[in-house]
Design brief:
The protein has 739 residues and is an alpha/beta fold. It is built from 24 helices and 24 strands. Keywords: Cell membrane, Membrane, Transmembrane, Transmembrane helix.
């Protein structure tokens, strides 16, 4: 048997060389000689080897030339300034009661970040903004891949106007389509339709965005090549019904794609989606595998040549993975479905969704450390609905350019499948195991195993079916058994309380529904920032510093400098010391409000409700023990009650009106407290956690405290032996403890 047909063609080798050069050039130029060797071997001829090496070097040189540091604004960083900006996208709500959007100022791209509800301005709006212009923090380095080098903390927005010229005309096209979608009576369905057609999910609620992502349906509202390919597949299906020839089909696909770009805003992500989607369409249309590979490689090389930074952009990686999987797998999957009697109109979108899910799963696991177990069933259920919703939405957007009233019937009809897609996403996304932690190699290996076993079905059907079932079980169960937690926020409807292992000190993290509240920050050098990253936190709705001691607020300034914080509840009660002063200075520099803590205050962030029980208003230590004036919090999350006592012991707690609780943070690192048995009998906690450092010199926790806890029958965990202790659950689902 000849293997000549399996050997890469010269054009294919050159495209691979260009792609490798574009990826390695700006990041790992030392690996270029290593990459040149296998390319020369594959080329097989001296001329081919020279050509591949030259293209490799040219791609690397071009990428390095185009990948310099992002252009900085003319204004100096670290100062409050006023800028005239042009929005690149609709501002969207972010966690922590904030909003964000990319904008340009005199050729420089920056990230806007503000508090409160997103301003009602769309892409192309020109306005003046005043705020602190600063360098990106450790959790904002991702903006470099988007070509931005600064963040403007917006405090004031002036009235906006529209830009003119060709860009303004494209804005008008998009605005007319958005106005048509806004006429849909079901606001949530209209927001989803806007996301599916225009790739703009700014109007979707944070909860719906989170649920769709957990269900593996987040790609539906992203400007991705998979969405363009889905639209092209619909056109191809209609052409097939009408009996159109291959040339006519391709021409119509390219025409529809060309119409989609201005409709969706013509931004960088849209242009990339159009290129990727066009490549997927060509790959689906091509009958020869080599033509499919050429189309995919050409699209990847073209998008990276235009913007080399895209190689590290998760959006590009997911888009390329989805498009590649569609081009290589959608055809065989569609044929397999139609051979089993599935109608082509149903087989096409199902094959696209399944192929895209297979392609993006290992990439998503590599980027985010998670994989959605709900993705396959949710996508299979949503796939027949996505096609009519996208097509009707596209027609609504086109007719809106003539008259908005003509678009309303199409938008109203499109809202019906959108409502069903949203219901599917909400249901699957709310399942406790909808999204789990998993490494990329686990996902890729599981997919490879399933595919290999599926191929075995042809020769030994009974054995193949049994092994495939076992493999599917491994895909669904084994990653769950290896779940280490903390890499992603908790599932919707689930509370997570993490007692962080930061040494001799307190740091308690409360999470629910994309919101996060941190109570205390432990001592300096406690690796708190790294633990917050592992817990999936990139912002805090609020930070509570319970009292003025270094083992509770020692790393507070580091936290404020590392990530956005909505509010600081300051429990220093007038006591001045070094760490508290640093905390206040960091908060002031970031524009974060400090509020003195006192009984009666309530912090609310999504499902988190934290009520301050102590100290009374107007009381200060006046040289006394700061522990006796530490902030005591009763938190309620998803029906659970958590009592966080800081260092306040029973002489303080006995004065408070305390209800039964589910979780108790034991006072003062487990120090001796004669009133602890009475407190335990009164509040009857199910779990008690001691935050204490290994080998501390204070003798914490004391034998008397451990004895009282043991006699009460409460489950006890301690950070010096168990490491970080994570408790998850709700009033209806019960509690699960790790650590």
């Amino acid at each position: 048997m000849s293997l000549r047909g399996a050997r890469p063609r010269p054009a294919e080798i050159l495209l691979i060389a260009a792609l490798v050069g574009l990826v390695l050039g700006p990041r790992e130029p030392r690996l270029l000689p290593v990459a040149a060797l296998p390319l020369a071997i594959i080329a097989a001829t001296p001329a081919g080897a020279v050509g591949a090496t030259a293209v490799l070097a040219s791609g690397a040189g071009w990428a390095r030339l185009r990948s310099g540091p992002p252009h900085l604004p003319e204004q100096a960083l670290g100062h409050v300034t006023t800028l005239r900006l042009t929005l690149e996208e609709t501002p969207r709500a972010a966690a922590g009661s904030r909003w964000r959007a990319f904008a340009t100022v005199r050729g420089a791209r920056i990230l806007l970040s503000g508090r409160g509800s997103p301003p009602r301005r769309g892409a192309g709006a020109v306005f003046q903004a005043r705020g602190l212009l600063r360098a990106p923090g450790p959790f904002e380095r991702w903006i470099d891949a988007r070509g931005a080098a600064a963040v403007l903390e917006v405090s004031v927005l002036a009235s906006a106007e529209r830009r003119g010229g060709a860009a303004g005309s494209l804005d008008a096209v998009r605005n007319r389509a958005q106005a048509a979608f806004a006429r849909v009576r079901d606001r949530d369905a209209g927001s989803l339709l806007r996301g599916m057609v225009l790739g703009d999910d700014a109007l979707l609620s944070l909860r719906d965005r989170e649920l769709l992502r957990h269900a593996g349906l987040g790609h539906l509202v992203a400007a991705s090549g998979a969405n363009v390919a889905l639209l092209a597949a619909l056109v191809l299906g209609l052409c097939a019904v009408a009996g159109a020839g291959r040339r006519t089909r391709l021409a119509l696909v390219l025409a529809v794609t060309a119409l989609y770009v201005p409709l969706a805003g013509s931004g960088p992500s849209i242009r990339r989606a159009a290129i990727m989607g066009g490549a997927a369409s060509l790959a689906l249309w091509a009958s020869r595998p080599v033509a499919r590979r050429h189309a995919l490689l050409l699209a990847a090389a073209a998008t990276l040549a235009i913007e080399p930074r895209s190689a590290v952009d998760p959006g590009w990686q997911l888009s390329f993975a989805a498009v590649s999987a569609i081009g290589l797998l959608a055809g065989p999957l569609r044929s397999a479905l139609t051979a089993r009697g599935v109608a082509r109109g149903v087989a096409e979108p199902v094959a696209l969704s399944v192929a895209a899910g297979i392609g993006t799963a290992p990439v998503a696991a590599g980027i985010f450390g998670t994989v959605s177990l709900a993705s396959l069933p949710a996508n299979l259920m949503a796939a027949p609905l996505v096609a009519p919703a996208t097509w009707l939405g596209m027609l609504a957007g086109l007719f809106a350019q003539i008259d908005e009233r003509l678009a309303v019937p199409f938008a109203t009809l499109a809202a019906l499948p959108c409502r069903a897609v949203l219901a599917i996403g909400r249901w699957w996304g709310a399942r406790p195991m909808a999204q789990i932690d998993a490494a990329w190699w686990m996902v890729l290996g599981a997919i490879a195993l399933v595919v290999a076993l599926g191929l075995a079905l042809r020769r030994r059907p009974r054995l193949g079916r049994m092994l495939t079932a076992l493999a599917l079980g491994a895909v669904l169960i084994w990653p769950a058994l290896r779940r280490t937690g903390g890499a992603t926020p908790p599932a919707p409807g689930i509370a997570r309380i993490t007692f962080l292992d930061i040494g001799q000190g307190d740091a308690t993290l409360l999470q629910a529904g994309g919101h996060a509240l941190l109570v205390d920050a432990g001592p300096p050098g406690g690796r708190l920032s790294q633990q917050l990253v592992r817990a999936g936190v990139d912002h805090l709705d609020a930070f509570v510093g319970t009292h003025a001691q270094a083992d509770h607020i020692g790393a507070a300034a580091d936290v404020l400098e590392a990530m956005p914080v909505g509010l600081v509840l300051d429990g220093r009660s007038g006591v001045r010391e070094q760490r508290g002063t640093a905390m206040a200075a960091a908060a002031h520099a970031r524009g974060v409000r400090l509020v003195p803590g006192q009984a009666g205050q309530v912090l609310e962030a999504g499902a988190i409700r934290a009520r301050v029980l102590w100290p009374p208003p107007g009381v200060t230590p006046h040289g006394g023990d700061p522990n006796d004036y530490a902030i005591v919090i009763l938190a309620e999350i998803e029906g659970l009650r958590i009592l966080l006592t800081a260092d306040a012991e029973s002489d303080v707690l006995s004065r408070l009106d305390l209800p039964p609780v589910d979780i108790l943070k034991v006072s003062h690192h487990g120090s001796a407290d004669p009133g602890l048995p009475a407190l335990l009998a009164r509040i009857t906690p199910r779990i008690a956690v001691i935050e204490v450092g290994r080998g501390n010199t204070y003798g914490h926790p004391t034998p008397s405290t451990l004895r009282a806890l043991e006699q009460s029958g409460v489950m006890v965990r301690r950070t010096d032996r168990d490491g970080a202790v994570r408790v998850e659950g709700s009033a209806s689902s019960g509690l699960r403890v790790a650590g």
